[in-house]
Amino acid sequence: MDIMTLVNALPGAAAQGLIWAIMAIGVYITYRVLDIADLTVDGTLCTGGAVCIMCMLNGCNVWVSILAATCAGLLAGLVTGIFHTFMGIQAILAGILTQLSLWSVNLKIMGKANQAINVDKYDLLVSLRFIKDVPFYRNTIFVVAVVIAVVIAILYWFFGTELGCGIRATGCNANMARAQGINTSLNKVIGLMISNGLVALSGALLAQYQGFADINMGRGSIVIGLAAVIIGEAIFGKLFRNFALKLLAVAFGSIIYYLVLQVVIWFKVDTDLLKVFSAVVVAIFLAIPYWKSRYFTKPTVRKGGNTNA
Amino acid sequence: MLEIKNVYKTFNAGTVNQKVALNGLDLTLEDGDFVTVIGGNGAGKSTMLNAIAGVWPIDMGKILIDGKDITRLSEHQRAKYIGRVFQDPMMGTAATMGIDENLALARRRGQPRTLRQGISAKEREGYRELVKTLDLGLEDRMTSKVGLLSGGQRQAITLLMATLQQPRLLLLDEHTAALDPKTAAKVLALSDKIVHDNHLTTLMITHNMKDAIKYGNRLIMMYEGRIIYDVRGEEKAALHVSDLLARFEQVSDGDFANDRMLLS
């Protein structure tokens, strides 16, 4: 239990938290803005990683590879969107269907269950190795922070446009949105695409960071994304009202999640149990608003009138 | 202006819950008609409005606005022509968005949603002035989330939203039924003013017979998915609640006892 082991591990945890933050922002867009629990992301994260690694192994520039990965994510979101709107399948089931099919797609992209990329032979944007002893502009924490800042800036702009406002209205009250002439089906598809595009971008960075893409890398990622959203809201919810700040809160939530995880690991907790911890933490946080309304609200006092009448 | 031709709609067809909601409905509105709609529960009043708005497809018949067949247009496509206010105050606004943002959404009804700014500073000022006319003190809370407003305030905002982009047809579906009597009267008076100021063709469902007589230039009574009584102009203005009750008793015999409570 050497404190230095923990201190040394923290920058890595922060970097990982930042990369997952992009994924969590994607989850925020479906879960909070569109009010859809989209399970596609478990597959999309791996798709992003797989496409990025395969592109790079085939000689593409790192930026082109990341762009290709993001586009693959957009496509995955499009598929879920079509399942949900055009084919009328429940959102959660539509996501599960896409996720399942992505398993095969990911295997076909990679050709096998795992594809590694050598940081010394390829010019990666982020890596485990770029945490210490590199100039700051090559430092993964800095690079990913810049990426997040750009992502938040673009999303802030987008959700302030006519189209973006329409998407927010769709998630808030679809009846009202349609009555105001908003094509809610189209907007849901766009929202799902943006979300999955971000998740794939996160996957692309994650695969570079860890040096490989793996068929299992996305498993349970929706839970991590939700955890980041919920932690961010729980801690910064009262403080951050602005949309950009809310997205920033999600990013902080993700970093905090990984830092806490690192501490848990440092306590030598069996790492096989980590997923169950994550699930329980998310379940409890999701339950809190329900418990609050169910058990901790005072009955409203009726104004005047005789209740026995 | 609005033509409803021989429209049929059956819910849960082929099940024990089968319900013929619209049964060969015919209705033609003239430009500028302000029509109040009355009828017992299940008479098809809301179903008629939903059929016009395109909430679901109808089984048979045609609906035209200004001679244009809108029967096959989707709900959001028809919104270009139609402004709506619902019975449930929660239904007409986006609760997590500001008053100004809600109005900006409504301002763009019937226009393509582009990547231009969702709301401009100039627009904001205009909305402030507009909301000021409601005289509810909301002009100083323009960025407040609509979810924080009372039912009456939300209905007033929804009314503005429905008429901000002048609709060819305004549909009011018992929009004061969920409000307390005082607020209801205020919202109703506001509706009447907006309808008159803009010469809007309007269909207004109400359960209150007095209101049905007091407002508008035409009154229709529905029963079992059809219009059974249609009166306008001076004849309408001269009506009394007792006339309507008698008329209703005449056509519905047995069912009248059940519906009397609802209509009085």
Short descriptors:
heterodimer; A: mainly alpha; ABC transporter involved in vitamin B12 uptake, BtuC; 11 helices; globular; B: 4-stranded antiparallel sheet; 23% strand
Please outline the helices and strands:
The complex is a heterodimer of chains A (309) and B (264).
Chain A: H1 3-33, H2 41-57, H3 62-84, H4 91-110, E1 114-116, H5 140-158, H6 162-172, H7 174-179, H8 184-210, E2 212-214, H9 221-236, H10 243-266, H11 274-295
Antiparallel strand pairs in A: 1-2
Helix pairs in contact in A: 1-5, 1-8, 1-9, 1-10, 2-3, 2-4, 2-8, 3-4, 3-8, 5-10, 6-8, 9-10, 9-11
Chain B: E1 2-11, E2 19-29, E3 34-39, H1 45-53, E4 60-65, E5 68-69, H2 75-78, E6 82-85, H3 99-107, H4 121-132, H5 151-164, E7 169-173, H6 181-198, E8 201-205, H7 209-214, E9 218-223, E10 226-232, H8 233-237, H9 241-252, H10 256-263
Parallel strand pairs in B: 3-8, 3-9, 6-7, 7-8
Antiparallel strand pairs in B: 1-2, 1-4, 4-5, 9-10
Average pLDDT confidence of chain A is 93
Rg from Cα of chain B: 19 Å
CATH architecture of chain A: Orthogonal Bundle
Mean pLDDT of chain B: 91
Output the radius of gyration of chain A: 21 Å
Show unreliable segments of chain A: 302-309
Quote the beta fraction of chain A. Answer: under 5%
Helical content band of chain A: 55-70%
| Whole-number total of structural domains of chain A | 1
Helix/strand order of chain A, N-terminal first? HHHHEHHHHEHHH
Question: If you had to describe this structure to a student in words, what would you say it looks like?
Answer:
The complex is a heterodimer of chains A (309) and B (264). With 309 residues, chain A is mainly alpha-helical. Chain A is built from eleven helices and two strands, in the order H-H-H-H-E-H-H-H-H-E-H-H-H. Chain A has a single domain (3-295), classed as Orthogonal Bundle (ABC transporter involved in vitamin B12 uptake, BtuC), CATH 1.10.3470. Helices cover 70% and strands 2% of the residues of chain A. Chain A has a two-stranded antiparallel sheet. With 264 residues, chain B is an alpha/beta fold. Chain B has a domain at 90-149. The longest helix of chain B has 18 residues, at 181-198. Chain B starts with a strand and ends with a helix. The mean pLDDT of chain B is 91. The chains are: A mainly alpha (309), B alpha/beta (264). At the A-B interface, helix 6 and helix 7 of A face helix 2 and helix 3 of B.
